[in-house]
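From the methods appendix. Each design record in this collection lists the tokenized structure first, followed by the designed amino acid sequence. Records were kept in a plain field format so they could be parsed without special tools. The example shown here is representative of the layout used throughout.

RECORD:
FOLD TOKENS (224 positions):
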């Protein structure tokens, strides 16, 4: 896929919220500041203190798409998002670097009092609500558990409470949201952190500008 034109600054795709917040120290380590706050600004293209770098603010799930098509030279996305993206676009992205930010885990969670182990042991068919269809399908296939997957786009915690599903597959960090909804995590599927992904053509044609930033991010994330 072609990189965007060479006469514009390098473009880094980010989602707002925790990924944006946790990326700021990595940019700072590369000597770059961002003055606008995406939570209050309506701008979707944010300048930085470097004339050679701008940020674009997109939905977390859209970051790999912008990078794959070269509309962003690089981007930062959770492993959760990258796993789902790869299922639909195999081979599309350059080997990601683990930045060790926005850490959490992908878990199976159920309503308090639901005996998950017994249901699995009995070979019951389980209804699973999740945004992470690919990761969930693979997890239960590995376990040999039959599941019906119901795709949701948010507020997964609600599904077991209203009888839409027996269990959810969702991201958990402190467990506060689960507890607030009387849910408990019963299984960890995978550790999640955010990764730096790079457009393959950009890496070749814009290496002079791009490589120092990639190196600075990798360095800063290895030595927080
Ligand atoms: P929205 O919340 O706007 O619907 P989203 O759920 O895609 O969008 P976020 O909730 O900001 O976006 O999550 C973005 C990324 O942050 C996720 O893909 C994941 O990698 C990471 N993340 C999500 N939840 C947590 C969490 N509880 N702890 C740490 N990181 C998380
Ligand atoms: Mg969210």
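DESIGN:
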């Amino acid at each position: 896929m072609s990189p965007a034109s060479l006469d514009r600054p390098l473009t880094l795709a980010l989602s707002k919220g925790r990924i944006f917040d946790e990326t700021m120290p990595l940019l700072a380590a590369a000597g770059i500041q961002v003055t606008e706050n995406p939570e209050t600004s309506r701008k979707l293209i944010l300048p930085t203190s470097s004339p050679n770098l701008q940020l674009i603010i997109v939905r977390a799930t859209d970051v790999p798409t912008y990078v794959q098509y070269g509309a962003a030279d690089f981007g930062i996305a959770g492993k959760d998002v990258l796993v789902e993206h790869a299922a639909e676009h195999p081979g599309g992205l350059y080997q990601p670097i683990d930045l060790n930010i926005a850490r959490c885990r992908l878990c199976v969670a159920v309503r308090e009092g639901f005996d998950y182990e017994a249901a699995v042991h009995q070979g019951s068919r389980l209804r699973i609500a999740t945004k992470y269809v690919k990761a969930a399908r693979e997890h239960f296939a590995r376990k040999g558990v039959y599941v019906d997957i119901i795709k949701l786009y948010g507020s997964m915690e609600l599904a077991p409470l209203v009888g839409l599903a027996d269990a959810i597959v969702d991201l958990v960090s402190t467990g506060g949201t689960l507890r607030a909804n009387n849910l408990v995590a019963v299984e960890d599927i995978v550790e999640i952190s955010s990764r730096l992904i790079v457009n393959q053509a950009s890496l070749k044609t814009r290496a002079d500008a791009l490589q120092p930033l990639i190196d600075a991010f990798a360095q800063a994330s290895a030595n927080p």
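APPENDIX NOTE: The radius of gyration is 19 Å.
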